[in-house]
Specification:
alpha+beta, six-stranded mixed beta sheet, five-stranded mixed barrel
Length: 397
Amino acid sequence: MISEDEALRRVLEAVQPGPVIALPLLEAVGLGCAARLTASVPLPRFDNSMMDGYALHAADSGAGSPLRVTGCQPAGADLGLSCNAGEAVRIFTGAPMPAGADAVIMQEDVDLGPGGLLCREPVQPGENIRRAGAELCAGQVLLEPGDVLTPARLGLLASQGLATVPVHAPTRSAVLSTGNELRQPGEPLDAGQIYNSNAVMLQALLMRAGLRAPAAVHSPDDLDATVTALDQLASERDVVLISGGVSVGDHDQVKPALRVLGIEPELWRVKVKPGKPFLFARQQRGERSVAFFGLPGNPVSAFITFHLFVLPALQRLQGRRSEPPLRLTAVSGQDLHNDGDRPHYLRGTLIDGVFHVRGLQLSHALFGLTQSGALMRLEPGARVQAGDRIQVLPLPG
């Protein structure tokens, strides 16, 4: 067995993002930006009003004399209005400032009568004005390569008039589930059979990681069928998650099937609990590389190994900058111990800074997993008492 850190290092060194393409903004959400982007349009683009009110000379607001309202400037096209001393221009939020005006007084702070506009409160020069370029100047860096394209960042790019963004080609993915005992949800079960929960869970994890429309294929525990399924998926996809069949039992056909296809696993068996029988392999198909991740058949093991090894690889494939997982300091809500020889990822809840283990801490305990929102890594031989400070990893979502 190899260590968790060594396994992750090998996986990340082996995967590289695809070619750079231009995608429409909404199709790029969650991907990594593939180039440095700079601003061409300052924000704000022009001096404009922060409020509904009146544009005027600040010095006139405290004079006590009525001001003559000479025009109205709504948001939209600049009407080219000007404002002289002793005058005011009706203005609305976002509207361009009239020439000469140096402040905006809110409409709540004025009285408008037959004699003109009277200011109840004085304003200062520049008050309630958004100055051109105050937030963003032309030429300023917007995004660096690897920055995740969040909704806010996509909005920023749209503010620059961009309709597309350079990204690495989206990763095409699939899930191959294996096992004679599996039936699809909705089908009747015979004795000894179970529903194929892993395929749905892994597809959902891929989708939450930003991958579009992951395929799902099932193969019985048959060497020829497994070879055919793997070969077909590798011809169409960049990443294939294999659920089950990666151990050394008589009916585990994944490793033999990969060898039939000329693929030798680059790593197998990682010193982590749950999730020891994790496999990673690659195959070159023309100019592209296909990554195979063999995940254990038990659902909790598959879930943990996905987050430890697959998710960081997917982020790299999407051109996202690699960042260590978020770890929070918490307090253990109970006594815990690990008498095994592998780090154990315990599943539990993190509430008000206190971590509590939830449910059966067994690799098949799917219901307990659904009650958990964080992981705690307990080192081999470690003992933790209630009240001890610990580190936990919040789970996405």
